[in-house]
Design a protein that fits this description.
Pfam families: B_lectin, PAN_2, PK_Tyr_Ser-Thr, S_locus_glycop. Keywords: ATP-binding, Cell membrane, Disulfide bond, EGF-like domain, Glycoprotein, Kinase, Lectin, Membrane, Nucleotide-binding, Receptor, Serine/threonine-protein kinase, Signal, Transferase, Transmembrane, Transmembrane helix. The longest helix is centred in the C-terminal third of the chain and has 14 residues. Helix content is 9%, strand content 41%. The strands form 9 sheets. Strands 28-27-35-31-36-33-34-32 form an 8-stranded mixed beta sheet, with helices on one face. Strand 12 and strand 13 form a beta hairpin.
Length: 552
Amino acid sequence: MVLSPFLILWYVWLSSVSPPSTAATVSDRLTQNQVLEDGQTLVSSGQRFELGFFSRGNSSHRYLGIWYKNITLTVVWVANRNKYISGQSGSLSMGSNGFSLLLNNSEKLWSVNTTRVLESPILQLLDNGNLVLKEENNPDLEGYVWQSFDDITDTLLPGMKLGWNLKTGLYRNMTSWLSADDPSAGDYTFSLDSPETPQLVLIKGTQKKYRWGPWDGVRFSGSNELRSNPVFTPMFNSSREEVYYTFEVIDQESLLSRFVVTQDGWIQYLTWSKSSNEWVAMVTLQRDSCDRYETCGPYGNCYSDGPKCNCLKGFTPKSPEDWSRIIWSGGCVRRWELECENGDGFVKYGGMKLPDYSHLVESRNLSLEICEAECLRNCSCMAFTLIDIHGSGGDCVMWFGDLVDMKHFPSGGDDLYIRMAKKELAACLNHPHRYLMEETQEEDLELALFNLKTVLAATDEFSFRNKIGQGGFGPVYKGVLPSKQEIAVKRLSRDSGQGLREFKNEVILISKLQHRNLVKLLGCCVHGDERMLIYEYLPNKSLDYFLFGLSI
């Protein structure tokens, strides 16, 4: 959902008040034994940010905060958000091992202290909006004893990190203001929710309201908004020491921008428009109702451009009555129960927002086949995918419960491989000798299911020199299996319009009609929208049989 210009202006007005008209600027820093009184401010060297005491509306509650120097007061950080000062009795005092926010120059309301005495401590407001405590003779970032960038309120500035410092245990998140006049911690928290498979979540109290993720190496799955663009560059870092999200502004010298979580729970990327003299929402993460958490229930897929919720193929509404009344929260259930070691396979779904509750199996460069095999071995594994979360080239991610909070994208999105029962589909499995078992009144029928990788290797990836004909149903290729058996592979046309079940039924029919004088159907292979029939190859058999014989 995109906010209207009225709502944007309303939010900007709510987050703005006038700075103290009598404020006296000290400099960009406090040194040992110096005091910043209410009415005085620190201003960064480039005149971008200002630190001082402020209040909201007609309230007498005072807070120590940071705002933009040359814009009508827009607060980006608050020190004592949960402990206000009554009246103008507050001061900021600099000591030898830290600094304190004092009431009436004596009562300590908030403080930052170090475990050692600093030789020449200074508290400095930098031009990126970061308030830092450091040794004056150690200007490096690593020399910061403390920084406000590690104590985020409702605003993420360029260079701020949302996430974990795994070395120190520090966890940074954003929390909304309680109201327009009250900067104390509000109802909404925006954060990364797991260093293993990090995703962005908006939580109200303890309830998830929105989710974007996990990170797939390019973007957070489920959000095409947080991608590189002409205005800002989103960045994700994952190492043994840190896992965090941040962003950089392309034109940092002239463009002011910030991410905010509003008191109403909107996540917005705002930029300052000099021409209109206002904050403009360039990005709002919540685009439509499909972004709301778990809109379609388990195994339901949300569509922004069509009927809101659809069951994934192979699933049916848990309550058809509710579904017909547009009550989708109950989700969907399988048409056929899984049988684990008795022929389960996977179906690939493209253009997906990956489900919630993912688990990282191994963080190293894995192949899709190995990831599939790992999931297939675990009867509790319901789905898997391979994405580059941590920059290792291939992270195997699995899901072990119901698949929830999915969304379909007309373009973009991620691939998801969902476990299906043998009765639901004929799938290309990792092992070329797995069988599809079909119960009939007369007999049990066994049909071999060939791995796509095996078929590709046998036909030299459907090379032109292996092509032996072309018919109305598609081309035919000669191939050789690892067992040295020669085969003929009929690659059926993709525009046949048939689904997996129809394909499977007709393959079974062909098998039943086989005669000893006819070419033997060895099996089939299905992968995505590929449909293939694998026959025994006989050099003296008429090519017409392969091209125009029993087929679908």
